[in-house]
Design brief:
The structure is a homodimer of 117-residue chains.
Chain A (H helix, E strand, L loop, with lengths): L10 H9 L4 H8 L5 E2 H8 L4 H13 L3 E6 L5 E6 L1 H31 L2
Antiparallel strand pairs in A: 1-3, 2-3
Chain A binds a DNA duplex (30 and 30 nucleotides) through α3 and α4.
DNA sequence: CTTTTATACTTACTTTTGGTAAGTCAAAGA
DNA sequence: TCTTTGACTTACCAAAAGTAAGTATAAAAG
């Protein structure tokens, strides 16, 4: 049983803190859909993420080594993102959650309605 | 390939949006450690969550039907929380991520340092 | 009999995180 | 010369989360 309250030293806290922001897990999922993706492709695929937050999310994932960023020196700019081996390892774990989501969404929506009544 | 940009209709977005806040996944993990838990127990186990946010997180999880909340009419108050069957289904999926975290934390910390240099 | 303690919250206020819209850069095309 | 293109950046505003204090009530302590 890990010591969740020791935030610095606890791997679980360390990783969950990084995944527990508004966009990170979704960005990983999206990147898992194709070999590599350009900034605007990811942006369109998600739809409602701001450019600012997409930039921030991608930079953090890059810093952790979960994605790689390749800049082509052309104009207009071209930048390709893809999951690293490490990132690809994480992908199926998040994907399992999305499958669970597909199976249980109806139930959850129902529960929410009950609760608000 | 689901339509992530249709936030209302997409189960993945719907569930990820709920899990993608600062504390939800960690609260589920902690509740998975014992049969049931009282408010202050959860609070101490996590350590740095505020009482306010713990209340908010628990209420949302309750609304979705992932945890149940039992109030004993005593003074001082006693309230017990535990995962429902639905919540217990989700637990191993989050737990798999924490195991991945344990395996790769060193590498990730190393990557972060490299990036900031 | 007054004060303290215990537990699970609220509430008012501040800080951090995220959203919005406009701007930047440099070359190619009209 | 003016517009378009793509990947951002920036200044400013809104939403989420943190902080510290307060609430309720009865039993136990002094």
């Amino acid at each position: 049983m890990s010591d969740f309250s020791n935030i610095e030293a606890c791997p679980v806290r360390n990783v969950l803190d990084r995944l527990s922001d508004k966009w990170t897990m979704l960005v990983i999922l999206v990147l898992g859909e194709s070999k590599e993706m350009r900034f605007n492709e990811i942006h369109k695929r998600i739809g409602d993420i701001s450019e600012k937050m997409l930039t921030v999310s991608l930079r953090k994932l890059e810093a952790d080594g979960l994605i790689s960023r390749e800049v082509y020196p052309v104009i207009p700019p071209k930048v390709e993102y893809k999951l690293t081996a490490l990132g690809q390892e994480l992908l199926p774990l998040i994907d399992t959650i999305t499958q669970w989501a597909d199976r249980h969404m109806q139930q959850i929506l129902h529960n929410r309605q009950q609760y608000n009544a």
